[in-house]
Write a structure and sequence with these properties.
Layout (H helix, E strand, L loop, with lengths): L2 H7 L10 E2 L2 E2 L8 H15 L2 H15 L5 E3 L1 H7 L2 E6 L9 H14 L4 E6 L3 H13 L2 E7 H6 L1 H9 L3 E5 L6 H14 L4 E3 L10 H9 L1 H14 L5 E6 L3 H7 L9 E7 L12 H4 L1 E5 L2 E5 L24 H8 L4 E5 L1 H15 L5 H13 L8 E6 L7 H7 L5
Parallel strand pairs: 4-14, 5-6, 5-8, 6-7, 9-10, 9-14, 10-13
Antiparallel strand pairs: 1-2, 3-4, 11-12
The structure holds pyridoxal-5'-phosphate (PLP).
Pyridoxal-5'-phosphate (PLP) binds next to strand 9, helix 12 and helix 16.
Length: 406
């Protein structure tokens, strides 16, 4: 990273008042949605400095979600790599992934805004489940928009959402996947802004969502920063996390952005390899464009049409990435790499066998990167990896991959 760029990031004042991270972010929406976004922004400004909100968030984070999650020293991974590897155990959160940190924060906001109905988009169903969980806990009506194709592929999560009392509405437009579900949720929101709260699942969408979701997920990095200092006496050399929309990554990374000596690596889904065209690496293989109310790196054809994505991990299968990550890529503060489906599966097997922890296929991308790059890193480095979720949801995919029928 160049010196001049360090200066521009410190002090860190992003996003600006209009939600821009440099050229990225913003609020590219229909006029009819502006009042709802302004109402949300005002509500967020109000709770941001509010001690009673923070206390409420911390109380549910502790007793309901199970925070703080451990920072676990993975001794056998460490031995295998010649480094000191620590795993931030978001897989131990209630519902099995980091997503619930954000839905907790947003549902508490919905309550303060006196909204009775909550809507969400979901791809693999993890954010839908986390939203449905919080709505069940607080007695709110919940409707989740999900592409028909994803409903077919992720039937277990559809069933979980229904058990939790949510209505799951299929979306048949476009490729009938996550991006279409998000379009549909935005459309629904326009028609019912009075009583409806839209809970977005990652650090994407129009301002103030990327800011809000980053702040709620930053609990991961705040805890990890204290834990790693306590356990090793210093800050880590590397942070690594998988990147779909970017919420688990930014949640870990954000509290370390000013620590110039900490190297930060985001791992995108390389699918069959970037040169194959079958992947979901928005930064590695995309260009800046506008989607879902924000400007960011996107996978698109020369006409700017969004192209179909592929990843073995449903949670990384999104054609875009949050605007702040696009900005931090451009500023040189975060290095983005990608690993293929095959390398992610190798990371999955590796962690399962060496540490007795079955990771989500999303998180397995970060492990796959460590596995293939460990030798190239400075010896005996302290490495913190975000273990964003557990792998139970992926058993079907893993069995298929190994040609086993369950
Ligand atoms: C959804 C999900 C991701 C990807 O989303 P981000 O916003 O990039 O974090 C990663 N890991 C798990 C376990 C997920 O459920």
């Amino acid at each position: 990273m160049k010196k001049s760029q360090h200066r521009s990031l410190s002090p860190y004042r992003f996003p600006d008042k209009k939600g821009h991270f440099g050229e990225f972010g913003g609020r590219y929406v229909a006029e009819t949605l502006m009042p709802a976004l302004k109402e949300l922004e005002a509500a967020y400004q109000k709770i941001k400095g509010d001690a009673s909100f923070r206390k409420e968030f911390q109380s549910y984070a502790a007793d309901y979600v199970g925070r703080p999650t451990p920072l676990y020293f993975a001794s056998r991974l460490s031995e295998a790599t010649g480094h000191r590897v620590y795993l931030k155990r978001e897989d131990l959160c209630h519902t099995g992934a980091h997503k619930v940190n954000n839905t907790l924060g947003q549902i508490l906001m919905a309550l303060r805004m006196k909204k009775k109905r909550v809507i969400a988009e979901t791809g693999a169903g993890q954010h839908g489940v986390a939203t449905a969980t919080m709505c069940a806990r607080f007695g709110l009506e919940c409707e989740v928009f999900m592409g028909d194709e994803d409903i077919r592929r992720q039937s277990l999560n559809v069933f979980r959402m229904k058990l939790l009392g949510a209505k799951v509405t299929g979306v048949s437009s476009g490729s009938a996947t996550l991006k279409d579900a998000m379009n549909e949720a935005l459309r629904d929101w326009i028609t019912r802004v009075q009583d409806t709260y839209y809970c977005i699942g990652t650090v994407a969408g129009p301002h103030p969502y990327p800011l809000m979701v980053r702040d709620f997920q930053s609990v991961i990095g705040k805890e990890a920063r204290k834990q790693v200092q306590k356990q090793t006496g210093r800050l880590p050399d590397y942070l690594m996390a998988c990147v779909g929309g970017g919420s688990n990554a930014l949640g870990l990374f954000f509290p370390f952005l000013q620590d110039k000596r900490v190297k930060i690596i985001g791992v995108e889904a390389g699918g069959d390899g970037l040169s194959s065209g079958r992947h979901a690496a928005a930064i590695g293989g995309g260009k800046p464009g506008v989607l879902h109310g924000q400007k960011s790196y996107l996978l698109q054809d020369p006409d700017g049409q969004i192209i179909p994505t592929h990843s073995i991990s449903a949670g990384l299968d999104y054609p875009g990435v949050g605007p702040e990550l696009s900005f931090l890529h451009q500023a040189g503060r975060i290095d983005f790499v990608s690993v293929t489906d095959k390398e992610a599966m190798a990371g999955f097997d590796w962690l399962t066998r060496l540490e007795g922890i079955i990771p989500a296929l999303e998180s397995a991308h970060a492990l796959g990167f460590l596995k293939k790059s460990a030798k190239k890193l400075k010896k005996n480095s302290i490495i913190v990896i975000n273990l964003s979720g557990r792998g139970d949801k992926d058993m079907g995919t893993v069995a298929d991959y190994h040609g086993v029928s369950l």
